[in-house]
Amino acid sequence: MQVKVKREHRLRIKRRIRKKVFGSPDKPRLSVFRSNRYIYAQLIDDTKGVTLAWASSREEDIRSSGGRPIDRSRLVGQKLAERAKSLGIQRIVFDRNGYKYHGNVRALAEGARENGLLF
Fold it and tell me: What does 70-117 look like in DSSP terms, one character per residue?
């Protein structure tokens, strides 16, 4: 029962955030999804409903790097920023997807900022 309450609470927060956060072609939305084991991030153009770039901790080079999950999250942010730069994207809006901005979510955001994404 407790898991269901937690999930519903996060989804309420997510809906509240998504009212304000919208991705466009020149400023896409960086959406984060965190499972118990992995973290995923993608840049989304909400006008077309298209994913422009993505990265996750399931990729072989990130998974093989080892280390703590928070270190892998930082690598995911860096890799996503590299892919965004190759597409000519510099500015984004951050969608934490209802998760608190700490731990792995914060590490991913800081990794993206380190490689030049502005948000």
Answer: HHHHHHHHHHHHHHHHHTT--B-EEE-TTS-SSTHHHHHHHHHHHTT-
